[in-house]
Amino acid sequence: MQPFSFHTVPHLIIERGGATRLGALVAPRFGARKTCLITDAFLYRSGLLSAPLESLRASGFEVLVIDDVQPDPPDHVIEAIAVRAWEFGAELVIGFGGGSSMDAAKLVAVLLAGTQALSDMYGVDKIRGARRPLIQVPTTAGTGSEVTAVAIVTTGDTTKSGIVSSSLYADMALLDAELTLGLPPAITAATGIDAMVHAIEAYTSCRLKNPISDMLALQALALIAAHLVRACEDGTDLDAREALLLGAMLAGQAFANAPVAAVHALAYPLGGRFHLPHGLSNALVLPEVLRFNAQVPAATEAYAELATRLLPELTGDAKARATAFIRQLKALIAATGLPHRLRDHGIAQKDLSQLAADAMQQTRLLANNPREMTEAAALDIYRRAW
Predict the structure, then answer these.
(1) Are residues 97 and 40 in contact, defined by beta-carbon separation less than 8 angstroms?
(2) Is the pTM value of this prediction over 0.85?
(3) What is the CA radius of gyration of the chain?
(4) Which domains does the chain have, with CATH numbers?
(5) Phi and psi of 112, rounded to 5°?
(6) Looking at residues 98-121, what average pLDDT do you find?
(7) What is the 3-state secondary structure (H, E, C) of the chain?
(8) Which residues 6+ apart lie within 8 Å of 290 measured at CB?
(9) Burial environment of residue 42 by CB neighbours within 10 A (0 to 12, 13 to 18, 19 or more)
């Protein structure tokens, strides 16, 4: 066995209704009382925060809610949130919402220490010094951001940049499936497929893949595949919602240690240039990236192993099972109702060359792919997905 290390959030709470007693869960672990809760305006207006805020205040926390987060938050928005949190004197940061809110909370917790500018953090292991205590509460089942050491920032009109550092692991994450009840089918589908991609790419990553990440990826994939369509069809199915939330968290732990690859590299330009939701972007390129990867033995074997987990009745050699796996994923995406061609989302054929060029800038991700990705191959994948 190759040597490996594994990192994750030190304290996880999975509890239906846990958000309604957030203060009681947080108070014994954190002495800080001036708390900044970071979320988005829609979530704040929805009333979903009312009970958690009441619980925090009843437990003695003074809370500033900042609801300025937008999808794929730009750098200047994160910097402005950090200034407001600093002026308030925040000693504790809570991210409450989807991946964008949780990513923003990670970076605000670091920026509050006042030792480093956001512009100095981009890349891997560039964060220096301490951060404020950090709690994450996801309201979608997809990004796994509550247990990852990654934050994604929009750094220009069409570009996204990643910040990767162990400093971004939260001190505590609370998973309450009741917070995800009633999510629209399209959001349920996109976030669920995002989590599936995390599991698949962690399992096939050519860097840092290890027995623990493999175990988590397999379990995550099984949970999500079994419950995604069910949750899309009935937004009130709490058992399905909880399975997706747990699956997304397990997938997050997997890819936090065995990083994602070409699916994400080709998805990011779709979000940057066309502002498509990240999970949807992953769904649009997933089958064709897997088809491309499956031409090399390492990926073929891995996809065959994943196929056996999802479809235990499968027979045949590794190539046949890998092909069946990709076919099953395409069918699952279709069953969720997501429009699954690039042209369904306003992307023209003339845009594909630029997308391929943009994808090649994602060197941090492409380095993890089981097959070398070229610009010509990326263009072919976009064409097949179009």
Answers:
(1) yes
(2) yes
(3) 20
(4) 12-180 (3.40.50.1970), 185-385 (1.20.1090.10)
(5) -65, -25
(6) 95
(7) CCCCCCCCCCCEEECCCHHHHHHHHHCCCCCCCEEEEEEEHHHHHHCCCHHHHHHHHHCCCEEEEEEEECCCCEHHHHHHHHHHHHHHCCCEEEEEECHHHHHHHHHHHHHCCCCCCHHHCCEECCCCCCCCCEEEEECCCCCCHHHCCEEEEECCCCCEEEEECHHHCCCEEEECHHHHCCCCHHHHHHHHHHHHHHHHHHHHCCCCCCHHHHHHHHHHHHHHHHHHHHHHHCCCCHHHHHHHHHHHHHHHHHHHHCCCCHHHHHHHHHHHHHCCCHHHHHHHHHHHHHHHHCCCHHHHHHHHHHHHHHCCCCCCCHHHHHHHHHHHHHHHHHHCCCCCCHHHHCCCHHHHHHHHHHHCCCHHHHCCCCCCCCHHHHHHHHHHHC
(8) 200, 263, 299, 303, 325, 326, 329
(9) exposed
Residue 31 has what pLDDT?
86
- pLDDT the model gives residue 131: 95
The pLDDT value recorded for residue 159 is 80
Q: Is residue 160 pLDDT above 90, yes or no?
A: no
Strand ranges of the sheet holding 12-14, from the earlier edge strand across to the other edge:
12-14, 172-175, 134-138, 92-97, 34-40, 62-69
| The predicted structure's pLDDT at residue 350 | 97
The answer, yes or no, to whether residue 157 has pLDDT greater than 80, is: no
pLDDT at 306: 96
- How many residues comprise the chain? 386
